[in-house]
Amino acid sequence: MHIPYATQSIDDSDLEAVRQVLTGGWLTQGPAVPRFEEDFARLHGVKHAVAVSNATAGLHLACLALRVGPQSLVWTTPNSFVASANCARYCGAQVDFVDIDPTTRNMSVAALRDKLAAAERSGRLPQVVVPVHFAGLACDLAQMRQLADRYGFAILADASHAVGAQYQGAPVGAEHADISVFSFHPVKIITTAEGGLVATQRDDLAHQLRLLRSHGITRDPAHMQTPPEGAWCYEQQLLGYNYRLTDLQAALGSSQLQRLDRLHQRRIALAARYPRLLEGLPLQLPAVLPDRVSAWHLFVVELEAGVRVDRATVFRRLRDAGIGVNVHYTPIHLQPYYRALGFAPGMFPHAEAYSRRALSLPLYPDLQDAQQEQVADTLRRALQP
Ligand SMILES: *Cc1c(COP(=O)(O)O)cnc(C)c1O
Questions:
Q1: Is the N-terminal amide bond of 90 cis, ω within 30° of 0?
Q2: With a 6 A CB cut-off, is 199 part of the ligand 1 pocket?
Q3: In the predicted structure, residue 1 carries a pLDDT above the cut 80
Q4: What region, left, alpha or beta, does residue 195 occupy, with left being phi > 0 and alpha being psi -120 to 50 degrees?
């Protein structure tokens, strides 16, 4: 039987929630969307939650709300999905990267600090920095906040992996970042099929985000520039998009959120079992930090230097045995699109070394103990020369 690296968990209550929308009056953005936004905001301790069609759209809107444009410089981490960088390119901004910390695999605060000092000297400071809570482990947000306040950039956290994650006792999204963007793609922590959400504590950003999500249009008389003649009136105030979530998706999201704690606890339990099952193998395991609770989106192991089988062989052996391992990620700066912008191998050596050794093992709530043992046994054999 095939074991994927990640997959959604759908139960009868999810089916019932979607059925109720289909037999009700609204399909596109109706009452289920604000309900989902409220549910999410409550759970994550944020004032504003703006649901969007996917996290990529959310990152784009977040950049626009932060006024990223062709004159802007945006920094992110090379160890992420391409959307973390592309969002800035959509706005015409220049992108650069900050290397990772080899232990957490997140953007290195030390590297960020050095790069900021150099950028200040050359007068080219970033307007926005996009850290990514890789695999669900929060970045060093408090230290990044200090740097943000000192150098005047905004923090746009790509929290696609981090629904339910905690940092220093608070849910990710509640503190430190100006904006946090979550993804509900089926491989992530909870799903709405496609879907995403932009969270912020700032009223000004939330207002912009809501306008931008829906064509730049407002129907609220309090926000109109001309007093409306009647209830049919609306105003387009800026160039927005159709990045809305549907009621079908939002109902699924609310239903999934009700089980978030259970889903998260199962991920935590599986992540705690892996080190025991992989004991003695030449692998670097994910960091566990005392001040953070990971969402455990991914469980990534790195082949240590002494392993005499190359990663491609280990990968192929596992896939041939029906185990859906994956690699997260090829460094963004090594993608042809970014190479054409001037990036090259060797620029971010920690991210590059990590990527050559990384293997994401199956981790999702419905993964059974016996299946996890099968993954570990197969990996043990695959590491033999
Ligand atoms: C999944 C993911 C995205 C994009 O999410 P979508 O909802 O599929 O657009 C962005 N950044 C990271 C780090 C992701 O893992």
A1: no
A2: no
A3: no
A4: left
Q: Is 56 in the pocket of ligand 1 (CB under 6 A)?
A: yes
Whether this prediction's pTM lies above 0.90 is answered by yes
Q: Which of 44, 115, 176, 188 is catalytic?
A: 188
Max CA pair span of the chain: 78
- The per-residue b/e assignment along 233-256, b for 16 or more CB within 10 angstroms, e otherwise, is eebeeeebbebbbbbbbbbbbbbb
Domain contains 72 = yes
* Residue 306 amino acid letter: G
The answer to the question of residue 311 being in a domain is: yes
Report helix, strand or coil for 32: helix
Q: What is the pLDDT of residue 251?
A: 97
Last residue of a domain, one of 258, 292, 307: 258
**Active-site residue, 188 included:** yes
- pLDDT > 90: what percent of the chain? 97
Domain that holds residue 57: 12-258
Task: Give the domain CATH number at 70.
Answer: 3.40.640.10
What residues contact residue 11 under an 8 Å CB cut-off, 6+ apart?
259
